[in-house]
Amino acid sequence: MRSSVNGGDDAADGSAASASYWWRSLEEAMKGQGASAQVRVVREMERLAAAGNDSLDDLRHKLLTYKAGDLWFPTGGITKQEMDIPPVITILLLGLAAAGKSSLVDLMYSVIGRAGFVPFTSPAEKDGRTLCLEEHNVLRSMRNGFCVFDSRGLDYDRMPDGLEEVAGWMENGIRHRQPCRGAEDSPAAAAASSAAKRFTWRRVNCTIVVADLYDLHQSLLSGNSAPLEATGALFHYHPLKINSSEGPILVLTHGDKLSPEERVEARVKVCGYLGVSETSGVYDTSCLNEYGAAVDEMDPTTSYAVAEAVFRALVVGDRSHRPKTRIKDWPWLALCWLMSAMAAFFAFLSSCCSQLGKVNRDYKYGKQS
Ligand SMILES: Nc1nc2c(ncn2[C@@H]2O[C@H](COP(=O)(O)OP(=O)(O)OP(=O)(O)O)[C@@H](O)[C@H]2O)c(=O)[nH]1
Ligand SMILES: [Mg+2]
Q1: Among 1, 5, 103, which residue has the most ligand 1 atoms within 8 Å of its CB, making it the best to mutate?
Q2: Whole-angstrom Cα distance, residue 66 to residue 325?
Q3: Ligand found nearest the CA of 127
Q4: What are phi and psi of 340, to 5 degrees?
Q5: Per residue in 21-40, pLDDT tens?
Q6: Ligand 1: distance of its center to the CA of 129 in Å?
Q7: Which of 115, 245, 262, 302 has the fewest CB within 10 Å, making it most exposed?
Q8: Distances, alpha carbon 168 to alpha carbons 172, 194, 204, 317, in Å
Q9: 129 in contact with ligand 1, CB cutoff 6 A
């Protein structure tokens, strides 16, 4: 059973015809349940709905006027000038294949870039899969303080390979049109790869893991734990930790394919499995409604959830900056490199000597016998 979309008081009084309040049918049944995880999820949805009606424009304005480093705050006795803050904060969307990353990017354009239903992501293959990393200025603003990168989803059967690729992105940075593994044979990916050389490398400042809640729910029901395990492996993948405390933000899609009870229950179970709070840093943002139509800014709950997920990503991103390397640090760095090189040289020398000693011993004993 699917979540009911048009409902609640607003729909009844006609003030927001396409508003989505799917969880409201649960409120009556949950009365007197105390503060169970399910109740907390419903309250969180109410919070997003209220904020969506009252302060979506404020949040949009904050995103529109955001400049990299605006959400940074001093720690460790170091000034902002001493921090290495890039001109643009980079948010990377990750997830399994068909989780809804590209649809989420389109939703961001629609609700925070006010672009209506125009799809901005460009799957060049018939199966709709993304071929290469794509940088998106979802605000459609000339003074963009952040960008969102869409990526190709990881496949269950090639998780180690996919995770290795993700580790490379986190370590070396990413750039627009950089081809993704698994799409190298496509002519469109080859064309993209030659274009990529002209685009700027960006260091990833924050990641958002997009997960298909319907798929995870089915996984929980059927006992086929592959989707759940793959999502857990990605979510807890060490290179995604921006610093000791910040893991990725979780965005759950496809919830519209579940009944309200299933939707709340699945969220609670998935968050329990991942070991994260079900109400903090987790957003349920279905990209389609029950009629299969794209959700837009007329749905204040989803709109606010998307905008807040981006805002939270910027807060995390602004905590990811490192202090600049100072001129007076260079001699120490050079000394460290020198010591490492010497250590490697002596290790090599000792290995050569031990080999020579072995050859010599073999020769001596060979002669005696
Ligand atoms: N019902 C429903 N369908 C969705 C939702 N989000 C995405 N879809 C559909 O799921 C399919 C896959 O979505 P994509 O956005 O292409 O998924 P992706 O993560 O970009 O996939 P890859 O590029 O292969 O990694 C499309 O047919 C979307 O229309 C959602 O919230 N609800
Ligand atoms: Mg895609």
Answers
A1: 103
A2: 26
A3: 1
A4: -65, -45
A5: 889 888 877 777 778 999 99
A6: 9
A7: 245
A8: 6, 19, 11, 18
A9: yes
Displacement of CA 179 from its chain's centroid (Å):
18
Query: What's the gap in Å between 89 CA and the centre of ligand 1?
Result: 25
- pLDDT of 6 above 60: no
Q: What is Dmax (Cα atoms) for the chain?
A: 105
CA torsion 347-350-356-362 (nearest 10°) is: -110
Beta strands in the chain (DSSP E): 83-84, 89-95, 134-136, 146-150, 206-212, 249-253, 282-284, 322-323
Binned at pLDDT 50, 70 and 90, residue 58 comes out as: very high
The bound ligand whose nearest atom lies closest to the alpha carbon of 154 is 1
Distance from C-alpha of 57 to C-alpha of 70, rounded to nearest angstrom = 19
Query: Higher-confidence residue: 125 or 130?
Result: 130
Q: Decide: 263 in ligand 1 pocket, CB within 6 A.
A: no
The C-alpha atoms of residue 327 and residue 308 are separated, in whole angstroms, by 39
Atom number in ligand 1 closest to CA 257: 1
Task: Please give the average per-residue pLDDT across 230-245, as a whole number.
Answer: 89
Residue nearest to atom 8 of ligand 1 (CA): 100
Q: What's the N-to-C CA distance of the chain in angstroms?
A: 85
The one-letter code for the residue type at 171 is E
287 CA to centre of ligand 2 in angstroms: 13
User: Tell me, what's the pLDDT at 126?
Assistant: 60
Cα 210 to Cα 186, 263, 274, 334, 350, distances in angstroms:
25, 16, 13, 42, 50
- What is the rounded distance in angstroms from the CA atom of residue 228 to the CA atom of residue 175? 29
Contact criterion met (CB below 8 Å) for 128 and 154: no
Q: How many CA atoms, within 13 angstroms, populate the side-chain half-sphere of residue 334? A: 6
What is the distance of C-alpha 253 from the center of its chain? 13
Residues 177-205: pLDDT tens digits? 998 988 777 777 777 777 778 899 999 99
pTM of the entire structure? 0.84
CB neighbourhood size of 362 (10 A): 10
Q: What is the DSSP string of 78-100?
A: --GGGEE--SSEEEEEEEBTTSS
